[in-house]
């Protein structure tokens, strides 16, 4: 695909800024994007195509042209090339090696939806190659990775959006929740509980033949080299069509080598909204206490002693001391969502509802005009990609920026470290270090496997 004139792309982005952010007030505004010339649209590529990779790509057809796709699984790659060709009317180029995408001068931005342990390497190298970046949540595998991404965003001036879509989508219920708090509808916030579900342990998962088409060594990438493991039973529903129990597709979320279990998978959504509501997006906790929890395998010195079963915590109640004497609870119990409790009331919010007296009172006592838009910092966008492309035009960071994301994700990472070590952690949010615990601090970073270092 040849490079398009930058001037015409800028004109498209300016049009998007005017139309996309008004979509909550004028839903039909998005139809205007269909009238844009194909030559005027920004050029994207997606790296990592299962599940969320396809979801964020298909949501973006009306805003951008996809020139290329990359995945280490040839079956996934081929299937998604066909779907993208059908969706946009033009076949994208296909690569097993994402670096070929970064070498191309015609691609303006990359969307990254690989397993978590690959996010930082690809994102940093993409920014160094002059690409703006959209990366799925959770953004990082470690706290040190978050600091590195922040450094490179600052150095390169690239626009970077994290895929925490609750900040823009889910019918804006979470924006409403924050507006209620800012309007004082529950008085002073004293406690916030983030319900993020539990996960199940696994049986012993034996070594198995690597599926045809999967480049297993590259899938592992920065993580330690280990055998592929899987049981025959197939996963159904979301993420289906792959082994229910494995150390690869979808199930990677349950292994600390590649992700952080429910703490980072769902915590990256609800802890994010909680921190935003508390005004704690530029700071962090002072103490993380694992009140009770269950690890599915035995641990020694913070590391699992077996390598053939899921190892992320299955159940947990974590107490977090937040600024202004607010208590945060992160729990695998109860309803998935966020409960805010203050001196004058309480309410609950998730993707399907906002319940409690403060919400019921809105009928007779509505929020001031513009209160929800004020949370967002302007008119509200109903599409995460629209906000990303608007930011590409303005060269301002989007609503889901790396700094606020990393601050809240540090809470999730620290909760996992506390459970792995079986003790309370004291955190210095200014220095972003664990206080007086050298062993715990050693878990803030991980060394990439040789041959998969980050190319700076």
UniProtKB/TrEMBL annotation:
<feature type="domain" description="Gfo/Idh/MocA-like oxidoreductase bacterial type C-terminal">
    <location>
        <begin position="206"/>
        <end position="453"/>
    </location>
</feature>
<keyword id="KW-0378">Hydrolase</keyword>
<dbReference type="InterPro" id="IPR036291">
    <property type="entry name" value="NAD(P)-bd_dom_sf"/>
</dbReference>
<dbReference type="InterPro" id="IPR000683">
    <property type="entry name" value="Gfo/Idh/MocA-like_OxRdtase_N"/>
</dbReference>
<feature type="domain" description="Gfo/Idh/MocA-like oxidoreductase N-terminal">
    <location>
        <begin position="91"/>
        <end position="163"/>
    </location>
</feature>
<dbReference type="InterPro" id="IPR006311">
    <property type="entry name" value="TAT_signal"/>
</dbReference>
<dbReference type="Pfam" id="PF01408">
    <property type="entry name" value="GFO_IDH_MocA"/>
</dbReference>
<dbReference type="GO" id="GO:0008456">
    <property type="term" value="F:alpha-N-acetylgalactosaminidase activity"/>
</dbReference>
<dbReference type="InterPro" id="IPR050463">
    <property type="entry name" value="Gfo/Idh/MocA_oxidrdct_glycsds"/>
</dbReference>
<dbReference type="InterPro" id="IPR019546">
    <property type="entry name" value="TAT_signal_bac_arc"/>
</dbReference>
<protein>
    <submittedName>
        <fullName>Alpha-N-acetylgalactosaminidase</fullName>
        <ecNumber>3.2.1.49</ecNumber>
    </submittedName>
</protein>
<dbReference type="Pfam" id="PF19051">
    <property type="entry name" value="GFO_IDH_MocA_C2"/>
</dbReference>
<dbReference type="GO" id="GO:0000166">
    <property type="term" value="F:nucleotide binding"/>
</dbReference>
<dbReference type="InterPro" id="IPR043906">
    <property type="entry name" value="Gfo/Idh/MocA_OxRdtase_bact_C"/>
</dbReference>
<keyword id="KW-0326">Glycosidase</keyword>
